[in-house]
Amino acid sequence: MSSQATAAATASVWEGGQSPYAANSKKFGMWLFIISDALTFSALLFAYTYSRVANPDWPKPFEFTPAIIFSSVMTFSLLTSSLTMVMAVHSMNVGNRASTVKWILATMVAGGTFVALHLTEWLKLINEEHVTPFQNPWGVPLFGATFFAITGLHMTHVVIGILYLGIICQAVARGKFKAEDVEVAGLYWHFVDLVWMFVFPLVYLMSARVG
Amino acid sequence: MSAHVETIEHPSVGIPTFVKVWIALLVLTGIEVLLAYEQVPTMIMLTALVGLSVIKAALIIAYFMHLKFERFSLFLTLFPMLVFCILLMLIFLGDATRIPVMRPPS
Q: Given an 8 Å threshold on Cβ–Cβ distance, is B29 in contact with A72?
């Protein structure tokens, strides 16, 4: 850890008054938001787990093919968007704005793919399998309620993330904003990916059905 | 090249690390999907999935979100509280197991 060296140079980390986190305020603010948002998603996932344990006849509507394969592709596009975002932050750190813009656009495309696939899946569930937040053919209404609440809130985050990246991207292209602004946007984007790493196994894989 | 050089801070990790982390995340996701395909018993499945997801989350936070290379004080400020609050939520989970037993027979 390189932080020990800096810490030694600036007396004690805990004395305050001289940037105890050695991070700028935007980054720290985003971290605080991420932690509070993580609690929101934890609460939702906990409510889902609670409902599921309380209803032993919880449905398992996701066939391995195509539903699980489909959501695996969604997971892949979101994971890949995290890689392109990290590349954007990296390019911005070495001062290459042209390639930063390209990587951010790639991130937005991957995020857009995720939203498009997710909406396709939602429409299929709503129109063909008649699942709504209040009722479904399998007799446990809470299934639809928890499914649409959790994935809906996550999709909202992805859409907001794409808009956020769009704003950052055009500013970077016009020579505005600094490396830290791209990094803060990256933090938010990775968090959206991080949440999906819990939603995908708990909501999809735990309800998988083979054959 | 019109890309003008700005304040360069030396990146503490390089592109090969990011690609390795990405591959690790894909492999872990693959293992999770495989578990779903094998229809492992529910409790083992849940434990394995949550365990793998925590590893994936740690990889994303440490490398993609760069927390491994921030000051340790930032980690200490943010994460113990989060873990503590999540553990507090889990206290209620025991109640859920009683609900099916308490439900009047239909």
A: yes
